[in-house]
Amino acid sequence: MKGFQVAVLGAAGGIGQPLSLLLKLNARVSKLHLYDVAPITPGVGVDLSHCDTSSTCVGFAGQDALIPCLTGCDLVIIPAGVPRKPGMTRDDLFNINAGIVKTLVEGIAKACPNAFVAIISNPVNSTVPIAAEILKANGVYDKRRLFGVTTLDVVRARRFVAEKANGVVRPEDVDIPVVGGHAGKTILPLLSQVAPAGCLSQLSQADVQALTARIQDAGTEVVEAKAGGGSATLSMAYAAAQFAESCLRALSGESVVECAYVDSTVVEGLNFFASKVKLGPTGAEEVFGLGPLSPFEQEGLTQLKAELKGSIDKGVAFVSAAAGAHASA
Predict the structure, then answer these.
(1) Per-residue model confidence as pLDDT tens digits over 68-98
(2) 321 is in an annotated binding site
(3) Which of 38, 48, 142, 157 is 20 to 30 A from residue 136's alpha carbon, by CA?
(4) Which fold is adopted by the domain 151-309?
């Protein structure tokens, strides 16, 4: 099995540390590079390097270490940024996390422009368009290799569907597309397309609406349960490790289908959208359409469009404003 070099940017944080542990356990990873501005990062690398798996692990701390960390990477995962607190939306994080993502992606453009880039930093609906604009500005944009990680929405949907199915199906056997974006009402689980077919046949329309709302609001459920102690970290690390495994399988030559937030023409007027994509050695080799929607899902799609477009435009405008400020400085 071919091994790959993977970097986690934001590796000392609440998502970064458990994600790095899970990647250290992945047999497809031969070199694991951990980056953060926090001085603890080299120590996190040493700590993980003691795990008895075949991959090597090195921690890098501080801005000067970004390029050495990224050089030669096949896959870069970005959980860097501040977490949500009670009462905050993902958009409240924008001003801080947008700047962080911009800096990190500038490093990717210089050090590993052909790497798969998987962005976790919220608000994903905006940070992925930011990354795209930075890569474009550096002349290295390949839309097939840039992903917003929405796997946690799928993971939650699988779990909640299995609960509602009363043990008829295991969570890991549920297949359900979750499309749109990665924030509140922009998250649209297509419960009408769930497989195994019929596992939710006992649900009323009110039940479907409630289950949809729970999937959409699951991140807030965690934020409130942690009572000021952070947002979803362990489940996000678990989901990101799943997506990383799919990326590494694709880089190995396999064909893998995952939901992800990508450069898309699936919905008119939205340049980025989450839907099922076929991953292969060159990245997102095919972006699938939505398929048949129920009237409730069609209404949800109509309602999410304006919010998602606003988030995309906000990301593009951020890069444009930053470029303007730099030019006038």
Answers:
(1) 999 999 999 999 998 767 777 666 789 889 9
(2) no
(3) 38
(4) L-2-Hydroxyisocaproate Dehydrogenase; Chain A, domain 2 (3.90.110)
The active-site residue out of 33, 50, 182, 326 is 182
Q: What is the pTM of this model?
A: 0.96
249 annotated ligand binder: no
Is 121 annotated as belonging to a binding site? yes
- Determine whether the annotation assigns residue 1 to a binding site: no
Over the chain, what HEC string results? CCCEEEEEECCCCCCHHHHHHHHHCCCCEEEEEEEECCCCHHHHHHHHHCCCCCCEEEEEECHHHHHHHHCCCCEEEECCCCCCCCCCCHHHHHHHHHHHHHHHHHHHHHHCCCCEEEECCCCHHHHHHHHHHHHHHCCCCCHHHEEECCHHHHHHHHHHHHHHCCCCCCHHHCECCEEECCCHHHEEECHHHCECCCCCCCCCHHHHHHHHHHHHCHHHHHHHHCCCCCCCCHHHHHHHHHHHHHHHHHHCCCCEEEEEEEECCCCCCCCEEEEEEEEECCEEEEECCCCCCCHHHHHHHHHHHHHHHHHHHHHHHHHHHHHHHHHHC
- Which is the CATH superfamily of the domain at 4-148? NAD(P)-binding Rossmann-like Domain (3.40.50.720)
Q: Is 326 a catalytic residue?
A: no
Q: Where are the domains of the chain?
A: 4-148, 151-309
